[in-house]
Design a protein that fits this description.
5% strand, Rossmann fold, 24 helices, globular
Length: 756
């Protein structure tokens, strides 16, 4: 039997290792050579990939041809799609998302390995075969990712059979690769090709993923589950808006666009073409996708609000994460892809310089380099634009969701909560705090990507510039320390700016609400001085905040130039050879460092402002609400009593011992005219507010029969009743008008009761 290195580490597809006259021994050596030797393994794996891709192409061409040749028999099996569809209501489990994420991760890894293989050169047949092998792997897993992504669109309950067969074969071959790698490590050690070592590490990492995909193929379920109408419950509306078949033609094309259309922005072409020919009218502008409308987003927000038993300290942050974690994770994935392909260009500069100077040994190396650079730039542009689009989309969705939640909360505030959160503060929550959360989405991923981006850049600098990269590391460390110190200051300034802004708006609203009294008493100058003092305090803190930010940006925008001069100066002192390829690469890498260094302080400021806004929103959305149970409402028309109060004790204060109304006994029959007359401050408004349930009921019983027709939501009904109460109170404060109204009503009733 030959030594292990001859068949475990040989990249040649040679059968010279099979030297045995015994039939059984020859068969064993053939099996060992086919399944454990590097070259036949890659040939076997590439063959499986090619067969799978060929199957997909054949099925696609067959379905395409069937549209033109099989229209006479619509029930023919050839007309059935590759992915079986089900137009019932459905929901997607985590199995589909995990399968798609793992497949996309494999496609990215294999694409990176393919690019590295072509960059290293294809002079020898083994390197060319290795590069083509990774190319087959990348194309296959990209096709699988697209196929799984379309399963949700077509509501496929099971994976296609070719895909399940491929996953089983993929697990077997990956297991053989992993077994070969372990055998090489045990028998040979580390004395073999480094590229083969990388392959062994890759397939040892891929093996757990293949095990999971094998489980998915055995289960057969794609993760799309058909849901009956009885199981939908409160989620039926949310589920139906995601069905493209139920959408109106006036809805934005983004709601019905396919994966390819969203990837290439093709869904915008009809609108842009129409707008180019003639100015768009209001009825020609498509409406928003139902899944993105404020009504649906408000329902999702309420469904994900933490339950009381969870004792969440940050309910708004928890709810927003539950609502948008998938979108945030997707934008993070796009940011990682953009970051990875961003460094392909600097890594290729040295290869371009060597090739143009005649150092390249392969005449086709230039084509490979140009093709790799072109693909990298296409991926970078697509990922960058989609990152910006989806980040802004998430920001707008968060803004409309928070504003809707704030508006609904404002309709349910109790008396003490309404005093703690005035109208000016609520407007500030909607205008400022919601916008701060929206702006955060563009800066969120820069926080955790910045160390990784700087680490890769400094590593490349060390590879090309040697120890002079330590100067860049020292400069970056100094900048980060400076940024953190200034951010703490900016946090303090921002807090006091928001606090004084709330005070100014509160004072302004109080002054405008009581302008009649102020003008009557000639207090204009006094209140003008109060408003001016609030403005001066706010202006002072805003000036400090602006000057602090200006200082931070002045230092940060000057650092890249100083960093470049520092790195090249240290390189000259150390005697490092500055060749053209090295200089161009180092300059490009230093330019890439500028973006994270400049955006990091702004990202910290955005995060700081968002955290302050989240704290303010937590305090408002968790404040006390009106207790709907204080008023016992009886539906129906039975009985004679419309409103009844027995021994009622009410207070405007929710927690204190103060009592505004005590021992109230009131009975109003249906169809009876009732009026409340009293002097100013006698409690007319308090009595009517207690009947509406806006006062805290300490004791007693309050019953109200029926509900105003045409209103289904208590908040809307409460607003309508509040307007009726305001009119009644205004009328009750004019005794002569009220007396006339009562007399006219009485005479009218008398005349109607007389016999004709």
């Amino acid at each position: 039997m030959p030594s292990s290195p001859s068949w475990l580490t040989s990249p040649q597809c040679s059968t010279s290792v099979i030297q045995s006259s015994d039939t059984l021994s020859t068969a064993i050596q053939w099996l060992r050579f086919i399944f454990l030797s590097p070259c036949p393994q890659r040939l076997l794996f590439s063959t499986i990939d090619a067969l799978f891709l060929l199957t997909l192409v054949v099925f696609s061409l067959r379905k395409l041809c069937s549209r033109f040749t099989s229209r006479t028999n619509p029930n023919s099996s050839i007309n059935k799609p590759l992915i079986e569809t089900n137009k019932s209501n459905f929901r997607v489990t985590t199995w589909l998302y995990i399968s798609l994420a793992l497949t996309a991760l494999l496609s990215i890894c294999f694409s990176v390995l393919c690019i590295l293989a072509f960059v290293q050169g294809t002079q020898s047949p083994w390197k060319l075969a290795e590069a083509l092998f990774w190319l087959f792997q990348a194309i296959t897993h990209v096709a699988i990712s697209i196929l799984i992504a379309h399963e949700r669109k077509f509501q496929a309950v099971t994976h296609p059979m070719p895909l399940r067969i491929y996953w089983v074969a993929n697990f077997i071959v990956v297991s053989l690769f992993a077994a070969s790698g372990i055998a090489r490590f045990i028998t040979v050690g580390g004395d073999f090709d480094p590229a083969m070592k990388l392959d062994d590490v890759v397939f040892l990492v891929v093996l757990p993923i293949s095990v999971f995909l094998l489980i998915v193929s055995v289960r057969g379920s794609s993760g799309v589950i058909v849901v009956g109408e009885s199981e939908l419950g409160t989620n039926s509306t949310i589920s139906q808006v995601n069905d493209p078949n139920l959408l109106d033609s006036s809805v934005s094309a983004y709601a019905r666009a396919s994966f390819f259309s969203k990837l290439t922005w093709h869904w915008m072409n009809p609108l842009l073409s129409k707008g180019y020919k003639s100015p768009l009218k209001m009825d020609e502008v498509p409406s928003l996708s139902p899944a993105h409308r404020a009504k649906i987003m408000a329902e999702v927000f309420e469904m994900n609000w933490p339950k009381p038993e969870e004792n969440s300290k940050n309910p708004v942050r928890t709810t927003l994460i539950r609502c948008f974690w998938k979108d945030i994770a997707f934008t993070g994935f796009l940011a990682v892809v953009k970051l990875l392909v961003m460094y392909v260009g600097p890594m290729l500069i040295n290869s371009f310089v060597d090739f143009t100077s005649g150092k390249g040994s392969n005449p086709y190396e230039g084509y490979y380099l140009v093709l790799i650079l072109l693909v990298a730039k296409i991926i970078e542009v697509l990922s960058s634009h989609h990152f910006n689009f989806h980040s802004q989309k998430i920001g707008m969705l968060i803004r409309c969701t928070v504003i809707t939640a704030l508006y609904k909360k404002g309709l349910r505030l109790s008396c003490s909560s309404r005093q703690a959160h005035g109208v000016g503060q609520i407007v500030n929550y909607m205008a400022v705090d919601a916008q701060q959360l929206s702006d955060l989405m563009m800066q969120l991923h820069s926080i955790w990507l910045m160390p990784f981006q700087l680490g890769v850049a400094l590593l490349l600098l060390y590879v090309y510039m040697g120890l002079s990269a330590l100067a860049a590391l020292a400069a970056v460390t100094a900048v980060l320390i400076f940024s953190l110190m200034r951010t703490r200051k900016n946090n303090t300034f921002q807090y006091f700016v928001m606090k004084n802004r709330d005070s100014r708006l509160k004072a302004t609203n109080e002054m405008l609400s009581n302008m009649r009294v102020i003008k009557f008493q000639a207090w204009e100058e006094h209140f003008n001085q109060r408003i001016e003092s609030c403005r001066e305090k706010e202006y002072g803190w805003l000036s400090k905040f602006t000057y602090s930010i200006s200082l931070t940006f002045a230092v940060l925008w000057s650092m890249p130039i100083l960093m470049s001069a520092l790195v090249f100066g240290v390189a000259i002192l150390l005697g490092i050879s500055l060749e053209p390829g090295t200089v161009f690469t180092a300059t490009t890498v230093l330019r890439l460092i500028q973006e994270p260094v400049r955006t990091f302080p702004q990202s910290l400021i955005s995060v700081t402002q968002a955290l302050i806004s989240l704290g303010r929103l937590d305090g408002f959305l968790t404040s006390k609400e009106l207790n709907d149970e204080s008023v016992e409402r009886e539906e129906g028309c039975g009985g004679e009593i419309a409103v009844e109060v027995k021994d009622g004790t009410f207070s405007w204060d929710d927690e204190g011992d103060n009592v505004n109304l005590k021992g109230v006994n009131l009975e109003i029959k249906k169809g009876e005219l009732a009026a409340i007359v009293g002097t100013v401050g006698s409690g007319k408004s308090s009595l009517l507010a207690s009947i509406l349930g806006e006062l805290h009921k300490k004791s007693g019983k309050l019953e109200s029969t029926g509900r105003i027709d045409g209103f289904s939501e208590p908040a809307t009904e409460r607003n309508f009743r509040r307007s009726v109460v305001s009119a009644t109170v205004a009328l009750s404060r004019r005794p002569f008008i009220l007396a006339s109204f009562v007399l006219i009503s009485a005479f009218n009733s008398c005349f109607q009761s007389l016999p004709s």
